[in-house]
């Protein structure tokens, strides 16, 4: 007969040994897990520390990382076109990239230039003339010949152009495709729709916003009208998809910042509109101060006033067009203490500058740079989010990196 006692004792020892082995494996796994967790924690902490230090870093100067000489031409005006430089006069225009290479050149004779830009595309024409030149940073897109004198124009990134034309007793609004041919046209009269004062196409060219002013009972009033050039707009009367009326207001500016977002500025308010097919007014903010300037980027809008605080020169109210709720449309007020010639609003920072001085802030209000240029600057163009900029001077294109 088998020894049951010895068998039981052996089984008990085996189970105990096996249990200890499993406990060791469990402890080993737990040890490895906490070790990996600790490494991940330290990695995240280091990344956060670097991020915080990067955001808190204040730049005190800059290095010139590249410089290209340019020919000095009297009377030449420089402006931004995407990340390139558009230089024009009454005799012609050319585009130069950040490396100083002229990508195209157009000669003309224009006495009173009307110009519209949308991203990297520009349209230029002569006030009361009949020619419109359309280009982007890489090439010439089209040359449009209008049937009536030009008053004003707007352009899309895709090369669509809408022009306000003088028809003597009435005003015409015509839209042209990238090939220069007329796609849509309409006629306006002061006694019905009013006189068009500003217009803007979406980047894709599928919607047009126009502000009109008219007189009613001796009072100036404005309307903002949106026209759709897609299948939705084609089913509407005169392509009109939305209309908003503002009694007692004069509205000299309406502007798309994307295919479904626009803003308009009047003499007493700023409005935000959203909607890809039927734009709706999402936010309105009134003001009673005299507006000095309006600047905008792909997302933010800045309204500049003389400062009510005598210790500062200007105040800029910044608005976020990406706001979902109306109460978030107004972002923050900033004080500026330089006589600016231009203000750019980037994705994370904005800057104000003149020929000699520059200040750069984050939208949280942190000053990132406050300094002077080494030589007079005509134009400053952000090149990336790493505080790299193109400085356009009289005789050079200088790429700088803040330090």
The total of beta strands comes to 32
Structural class: mainly beta
Distance between the termini: 91 Å
Parts with pLDDT < 50 across at least 5 consecutive residues: none
In DSSP terms (H or I, runs of 4 or more residues), the helix count works out at: 2
The proportion of residues forming helix, as a percent range, comes to 10-25%
The general outline is: globular
Major β-sheet annotation: 4 strands, antiparallel
Spatial arrangement of strands, main beta sheet: 1-32-31-30
- What number is the mean pLDDT? 90
Note the beta-strand portion: over 45%
Structural Rg: 30 Å
Question: Which tags fit this structure?
Answer:
403 residues, mainly beta, 50% strand, globular
Description:
This protein has helices at 4-56, 231-234; strands at 62-69, 77-81, 84-88, 92-96, 102-107, 113-118, 121-126, 131-136, 140-145, 150-155, 161-167, 170-176, 182-188, 195-201, 207-216, 219-228, 240-247, 253-258, 261-265, 269-274, 280-286, 291-296, 300-306, 314-320, 330-336, 342-345, 349-353, 357-362, 367-372, 379-382, 388-392, 396-402. With 403 residues, it is mainly beta. The chain has a 4-stranded antiparallel β-sheet with strand order 1-32-31-30, with no helix packed on it. The protein has a 4-stranded antiparallel β-sheet with strand order 2-3-4-5, with no helix packed on it. It has a 4-stranded antiparallel β-sheet with strand order 6-7-8-9, with no helix packed on it. The longest helix has 53 residues, at 4-56. The N and C termini lie far apart (91 Å).
């Amino acid at each position: 007969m088998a020894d049951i006692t010895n068998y039981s004792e052996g089984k008990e020892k085996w189970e105990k040994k096996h249990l200890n082995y499993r406990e060791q494996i469990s402890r080993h796994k737990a040890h490895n897990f906490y070790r990996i967790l600790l490494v991940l924690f330290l990695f995240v902490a280091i990344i956060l520390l670097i991020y915080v230090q990067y955001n808190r870093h204040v730049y005190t100067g800059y290095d010139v990382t590249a410089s290209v000489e340019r020919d000095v031409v009297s009377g030449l005006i420089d402006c931004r076109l995407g990340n390139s430089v558009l230089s024009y006069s009454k005799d012609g225009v050319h585009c130069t990239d950040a490396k100083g290479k002229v990508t195209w050149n157009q000669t003309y004779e224009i006495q009173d230039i009307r110009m519209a830009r949308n991203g990297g595309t520009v349209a230029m024409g002569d006030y009361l003339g009949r020619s419109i030149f359309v280009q982007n940073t890489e090439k010439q897109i089209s040359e449009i010949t209008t049937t009536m004198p030009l008053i004003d124009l707007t352009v899309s990134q895709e090369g669509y152009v809408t022009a306000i034309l003088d028809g003597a007793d009435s005003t015409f609004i015509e839209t042209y495709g990238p090939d220069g041919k007329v796609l849509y046209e309409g006629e306006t009269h002061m006694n019905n729709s009013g006189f068009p004062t500003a217009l803007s196409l979406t980047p894709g060219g599928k919607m047009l916003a126009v502000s009109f002013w008219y007189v009613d009972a001796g009072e100036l009033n404005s309307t903002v009208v949106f026209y759709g050039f897609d299948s939705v707009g084609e089913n509407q009367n005169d392509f009109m998809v939305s209309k908003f009326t503002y009694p007692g207001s004069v509205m000299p500016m309406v502007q798309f910042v994307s295919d479904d977002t626009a803003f308009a500025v009047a003499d007493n308010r700023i409005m935000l509109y959203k909607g890809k097919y039927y734009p709706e007014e999402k936010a309105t903010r009134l003001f009673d101060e005299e507006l000095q300037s309006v600047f905008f980027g792909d997302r933010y809008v800045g309204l500049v006033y003389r400062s009510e605080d005598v210790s500062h020169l200007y105040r800029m109210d910044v608005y976020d067009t990406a706001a979902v709720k109306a109460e978030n449309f107004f972002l923050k007020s900033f004080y500026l203490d330089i006589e600016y010639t231009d203000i750019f609003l980037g994705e994370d920072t904005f800057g104000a500058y003149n020929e000699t001085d520059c200040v750069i802030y984050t939208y949280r209000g942190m000053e990132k740079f406050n300094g002077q240029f080494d030589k007079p600057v005509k134009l400053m163009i952000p090149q990336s989010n790493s505080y790299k900029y193109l400085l356009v001077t009289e005789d050079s294109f200088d790429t700088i990196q803040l330090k």
